[in-house]
Amino acid sequence: MENRIFERTELLLGSKTQIALAEVKVILFGVGGVGSWCAESLIRSGVRFLTLVDMDCVDVTNINRQLMATTETIGQVKVEVLKDRLLAINPKAAISVLHKRYTPESSADFNLSSYDYVIDAIDSIVDKADLLERTCNRTEAVIFSSMGAALKVDVNRIQTAEFWNVTGCPLAASLRRRFRKRNIILNRAINCVFSDEKYIPKDDIKSHLLEGNQRINGTLAHITAIFGFTLAGMLIEDVINKNT
Question: Fewer beta carbons within 10 Å, N or C terminal of the chain?
């Protein structure tokens, strides 16, 4: 049955690329509004070896944009719920889950050098910066990263660029300032998905909420999904280029 699942993909990519997709080892950090859609696209395209990393459980506020978030999965561990869905797509996929958070302190728990691809869909700027620096400078893995998908509504502004060429994204700008301040040099390119849209809400719309000292920005499912699908697309295109 597995061969039939990917029949249409192989018609497009060819058997050599399809075999290569099934052999690459991928680790995905963050399975929220961006990462969950990325994971689904990878599995539906024929990636078999996928590790999912996230510490959160499904919350009712996730339902508007996260693939595995429904009224029936509230309170469940995100990576476990997503794993079940992905295995329903391809039961032969080798999906590992790590219910933990990537941080500079926990980075040693993740054997990044054992993966061909690292996909970053992390929200925290501290954790994100450490992952990008560590992957670029201490592994041979190819890394793809999502910049900020919140406060975006215009699909026409979503695009890709190398990290240092990303424009109009406050998250990317903040990361670059952080690297420069700490004299961190990234030894390899990082291809990113981002939007340069500057969303200005109308007077009667709130663009964010405050929970404690944290600002929670508004998000839309189709925007985060496009970000996630684009990350998957960049990985697939890289595999194609290496096998044609």
Answer: N
